[in-house]
Write a structure and sequence with these properties.
This protein is α/β, with parallel strands linked by helices. The chain has two domains: 46-178 and 196-217 and 420-431, no CATH class; 237-410, no CATH class. It contains 14 helices and twelve strands. The protein has helices spanning 7-21, 23-42, 70-77, 89-93, 97-106, 131-141, 224-232, 264-271, 285-306, 312-329, 335-339, 359-370, 379-410, 421-424; strands spanning 48-51, 111-112, 126-129, 149-151, 159-164, 167-174, 201-207, 241-243, 249-251, 279-280, 412-413, 428-431. The strands form three sheets. It has an eight-stranded mixed beta sheet. The chain has a two-stranded antiparallel ribbon with strand order 8-9. Strands 10-11 form a two-stranded parallel sheet. A hairpin with a 7-residue loop joins strand 4 (149-151) and strand 5. The chain is elongated, with a radius of gyration of 31 Å. 36% of the residues are buried.
Length: 440
């Protein structure tokens, strides 16, 4: 029949139908590749920058304004990158408060991330910070320890929110799954090997930061290293070099983490004119208590050596009773009544401790409480020790008193997420100018 379709025509028709039905499968990979290449071109005006820990200078922090108008910021900072010709105009105009803050405090300038990480949305602005950089920035602003405080952090969870005064933040820990195995591996008798995955990272919103317009006086003279060490567990009174009440500069006795177990840093508090951060690492609280115990142990030792001394005996007896009471109660309350009959009376808040001592003598006084000697004072050291002993004991008693009063009345435990080793080494991608409650 003329109208009948022969077998060749039938086969051709089936082939055409099969091709049409399989077009998505055939063209899908090509489409996705083209989409991945072309889409970023439409959003090339969106920034993707990074400020690393090493971009923050190590000099002492000065009292400077931390916020300014965007026009002033643009004038002072210039472009966001060293080569403005390669940075889109839209990105150069979008200076966030966080950019300005990091520049004003540490002279840090954002650098573009090229190529943009494939896991980041192309239609949003991002600024990447090292975790340590984020922590010290929050400590400098200080809102994290003031006003109403709340966070939903739980160890092991992949997301949490923070609310510190006006500052709001949301954090999401992303651990990408391994990519599917390559098809070529299926012919092998060995199990398929997953392709490499991205390292874990954090996506974050951070709003109303910084909260303060100026660097607070407590931060003046500190460095980024000072702040990070305090976050990691150094006492909140720590400065690498601190200024005494007599305006003498002295090297702090805590030089490594094990030194926080010793009593020398409490003696340093008694001599120091520095104001502590209002936040401390509560995970190290047992070490701080041990340091208070070391002070008491040293006082017992000295009392045993000088108990019959006409001046030192009564002083050390009062010191032992006073520190025993404070450590037992976890409070400085009631100390004045214990000291009132001794030469230590009023030392708990005296501004004159060590005023007549040199830097070397103050160092000797701290060393006396920083070592684990059990025996008598060596004869060749006796004269030097006795010359500083009254001021050393005053500083020790005062330091323990100030510490317990700080813990009970002024200090705030640092949020636990800030020392979580599981997230500390993850880059933090903050959506620049992120909107509160906006999901990722």
């Amino acid at each position: 029949m003329a109208g009948d379709m022969n077998w060749d025509q039938m086969a051709a028709l089936v082939a055409v139908v099969a091709i049409v039905l399989n077009l998505p499968t055939i063209l899908g990979p090509l489409y996705r590749k083209l989409h991945a290449k072309i889409r970023p071109l439409f959003y090339r005006g969106f920034r993707c920058d990074v400020i690393r820990w090493d971009d923050l200078h190590e000099r002492k922090i000065a009292l400077v304004p931390t916020l300014m108008s965007l026009s002033s910021a643009a004038s002072e900072l210039g472009s966001l990158t060293a080569d403005s010709s390669t940075t889109p105009l839209a990105a150069r105009r979008q200076l966030s408060d966080l950019d300005v803050f990091l520049s004003r405090v540490w002279r840090a300038t954002p650098n573009p991330v090229i190529p943009r990480p494939s896991y980041l949305p192309v239609d949003k602005n991002f600024l990447c910070l090292d975790f340590d950089t984020l922590v010290v920035a929050l400590l400098v602003d200080g809102t994290i320890a003031l006003g109403s405080k709340h966070d939903s952090y739980l160890p092991g969870h992949t997301s949490f929110s923070i609310s510190y005064g006006a500052v709001r933040g949301r954090f999401y820990l992303v651990t990408p799954h391994p990519s599917p195995p390559s098809s070529s591996s299926s012919s092998s008798s060995s199990p398929p090997t997953p392709l490499p995955a991205h390292a874990p990272y954090i996506l974050a919103n951070l709003t109303n930061f910084p909260h303060h317009d100026y660097i607070r006086p407590v931060i003046r003279g500190m460095t980024k290293i000072d702040l990070l060490l305090i976050a990691q567990g150094y006492p909140p009174f720590y400065r690498k070099n601190f200024t005494t009440k007599s305006r003498v500069t002295v090297r702090h006795p805590v030089k490594e983490m094990r030194d926080i177990h010793r009593g020398a840093w409490l003696v340093a508090i008694g001599f120091s004119s520095e104001v502590p951060l209002v936040i401390y690492n509560s995970r190290k609280m047992n070490a701080y208590k041990e340091a208070c115990g070391r002070v008491l142990h040293t006082l017992f030792r000295l009392h045993g050596i000088y108990e019959n001394h006409s001046v030192f005996g009564n002083m050390l007896d009062a010191a032992v009773r006073g520190v025993t009471r404070m450590n037992g109660n976890g409070s400085g309350s009631g100390l004045p009544s214990v000291l009132e009959e001794s030469i230590l009376a009023g030392c708990e808040d005296s501004g004159e401790i060590g005023n007549r001592l040199s830097a070397a003598e103050i160092g000797l006084a701290m060393k006396l409480f920083g070592e684990f000697d059990e025996g008598p004072v060596r004869e060749e050291d006796r004269e030097k020790v006795e010359r500083v002993l009254v001021e050393a004991v005053k500083a020790a008693v005062s330091g323990v008193y100030v510490w317990w009063q700080y813990v009970n009345n002024h200090g705030n435990p640092m949020p636990r997420w800030m020392y979580d080793e599981g997230i500390r080494h993850c880059p933090v991608w903050i959506e620049d100018g992120g909107v509160e409650e906006q999901p990722f």
